[in-house]
Specification:
three-stranded antiparallel β-sheet, 3 strands, globular
């Protein structure tokens, strides 16, 4: 149940972000040691930051 809740939250946040921020202004920033090692990329969204790892997002 929890993965579906997280996925729903992500999709709703992404929809709001897409509606309020043009895609060209939402850069995916590669991890060069500024975050924990499992994090590959991060993106700032309205209301928070999304971290992308190999097999999940947080």
């Amino acid at each position: 149940m929890r993965p579906f809740l997280v996925l729903g939250l992500f999709l709703s946040t992404a929809a709001v972000a897409r509606a309020t921020v043009p895609v060209s202004q939402v850069p995916f920033v590669p991890n060069h040691g500024q975050w924990a090692k499992p994090v590959k990329y991060a993106v700032d969204l309205p209301g928070g930051r999304l971290f992308l790892e190999n097999s999940c997002f947080t």
